[in-house]
Amino acid sequence: MHTVVVGTSGTTAADVIAVARDNARVELSGEAETALAAARAVVDDLAARPEPVYGVSTGFGALATRHIGPALRAQLQRNIVRSHAAGIGPRVEREVVRALMFLRLKTLCSGRTGVRPEVARTMADVLNAGITPVVHEHGSLGCSGDLAPLSHCALTLIGEGDAEGPDGVLRPAAELLAAHGIEPVELREKEGLALLNGTDGMLGMLVMALADLDRLYTSADITAALSLEALLGTDKVLAPELHAIRPHPGQAASAANMLAVLQGSELTGHHQDDAPRVQDAYSVRCAPQVAGAGRDTLAHARLVAERELAAAVDNPVVLPDGRVESNGNFHGAPVGYVLDFLAIAVADLASIAERRTDRLLDKNRSHGLPPFLADDAGVDSGLMIAQYTQAALVSELKRLAVPASADSIPSSAMQEDHVSMGWSAARKLRTAVGHLTQVLAIELYAATRGVELRDGLVPAGASRAVISAVRGAGVGGPGPDRYLAPDLAAAESFVRDGRLVAAAESVTGPLS
Questions:
Q1: Peptide bond before 316: cis, by omega within 30 degrees of 0?
Q2: 242-289 pLDDT, tens per residue?
Q3: Are residues 189 and 247 in the same domain?
Q4: Which residues are marked as active site?
């Protein structure tokens, strides 16, 4: 099994994916152990002093004005975990919880939080045991960190609440820890607070969305190329020199992908064969511009994610010179903005894909294809309602594109009077990524059928490879009406699992 070593200088997106999705083992580096011990010595020194220090010897949030004596400090740290574990609603996905915990561990290991090494080791042990705390959908405002989600994770560390074992069975956390030989943590000064105060949930979801969208944007280039073929469009608009004069890198990459997929096609360039047309419709001709803008949005979001992956988000923090200072680095605005930005790009990519699908099904615009790609139109409805399904998904994606980060509701008796809503932005982006996968699957279903209905013309080699692979995956081709839902589900799986990209690349080589 792959092992991820956590040091003091942050982590990578690849490591997050490895731990969250592939159950990679986690280990602390010697450097991290040293940094943890050094920062803890600073906190212990402050705890011994009479002056109040936020999070060490005071209450929290609007209650920070109360000084807490040594006898109550362990109770204070337990209480913040218990009281803040106030989430409600459905459980979030296992991979999200694992990303959340791993990213919090990353910050602990920075040596900026002041927790003892054994706290970090216990968190690593819980991850390695495959124990997944129950975290609920609602509870984070994305400021002061993802408080409720992280609190539910911390609750497991202290042996309270419920968690899911590696067998998928929900059990009391104390039982699961005991079954794996893990001692619950007895929290000391600042440690409860340090376990809760980060943007880890929204960041983990951003990292996973970026990985998924890398694949989906390449998939969209392939489905757009297949639609162009099925519509007898021209590939001349994909020429590199046309995209060089508007030098957006994402646009050039998408055009190059489409051109590679269409290499050798006999279906392109038939503008004058039926009804004369000088240009293809925007949904075909502007595919690289729209997908390319989304690619550039991904690049910006990746830059923000990389910065956040290198960050140590906590309040207060232990600085290299030994000072412990309050700060506002837990505010989720940087992450929340790009999560919302991506939701806009996803909605628009789905929108243009749906327009191509609708064009394929309309006999007045499809340049010779049968109505709705039906076998015997009138007796058969073909893919009529598949487009309805696609349109419903696109309509919901437009609603999901409304930014969460533009909202703010004051909390904690107006102490926390402006919040990011970054967790909400991340949750809706996860939904949007799933919808985009389905929209592209339906375009793939329609476009491959359209290409196959062009008798006497040979598709591109990459197109033939995609059609062969998708048919082999259980997605049916042209013919009389049949139960469509299983075909669409198989097409969705084919796109989501990366088999669409792999099939095209078996001919084109690596696509961008």
A1: yes
A2: 999 999 999 999 999 999 999 999 999 876 555 567 789 999 999 999
A3: no
A4: 54
Q: Which domain holds residue 46?
A: 3-198
Please identify which residue in the block is written with the tokens 């994916």: 17
Verdict on whether the full-model pTM lies above 0.85: yes
Single out the residue in 137, 172, 198 at which a domain terminates. Answer: 198
Check whether residue 139 and residue 261 sit in a common domain: no
Dihedral angle at the C-alpha atoms of 387, 389, 500, 458, nearest 10 degrees? -10
Contacts of 198 (CB under 8 A, 6+ apart): 103, 104, 107, 145, 146, 150, 313, 314, 330
Closest CA to 257 of 279, 300, 228: 228
36: Cβ–Cβ under 8 A, 6 or more apart, which residues? Answer: 28, 108, 109, 111, 115, 116, 117, 120
The residue from 144, 174, 198 where one domain ends is: 198
* Strand (E) or helix (H) holding 178: helix 173-179
Do 336 and 485 reside in the same domain of the chain? yes
Closest alpha carbon to 101 in 156, 36, 31 = 156
Alpha carbon distance 470, 496 (integer Å): 13
Does some domain include residue 512? no
Tell whether 180 and 298 lie within a shared domain. Answer: no
CATH number of the domain bearing residue 81: 1.10.275.10
52 token code pair: 């109040």
Supply 416's token pair. 């926390």
pLDDT in tens, 350-375: 999 999 999 999 999 999 999 999 99
